Amino acid sequence: MVLNLTEEEKKLLKMAEINFDTSKDYSDDEILEMADILFDMEMEFEEKPTTDKKAMKLANDYSNLVDKLQNMLPEE
To answer: What are the average pLDDT values for consecutive 10-residue runs of the chain, which has 76 residues?
Structure first.
């Protein structure tokens, strides 16, 4: 499926070193793999002290993107 992501979401992918092609037809497995990498990024930022507001925002942003990708997948 072609992923329709915002500019902010594309920046998150870039930060996670995921090459994203706006015209590519991604398979379910590719989307799951991407979500796994993004989940790891979320956990990395979650481990920072709660006083680190930037890290908390990034953890939340990654969480939202993981949820968005997982919601695009068909239910089994």
So the answer is: 94 96 95 96 92 94 97 85
User: How deeply is 63 buried, as exposed, middle or buried, from its count of CB atoms within 10 A (0-12, 13-18, 19+)?
Assistant: middle
pTM comes to 0.90
Tokens representing residue 4 in the block: 């329709």
Q: Which two tokens stand for residue 12?
A: 């998150």
Distance CA 16, CA 35 (A): 11
Instruction: Tell me the C-alpha distance between 76 and 64, whole Å.
Output: 21
How do the domains of the chain map onto residue ranges?
7-15+28-71
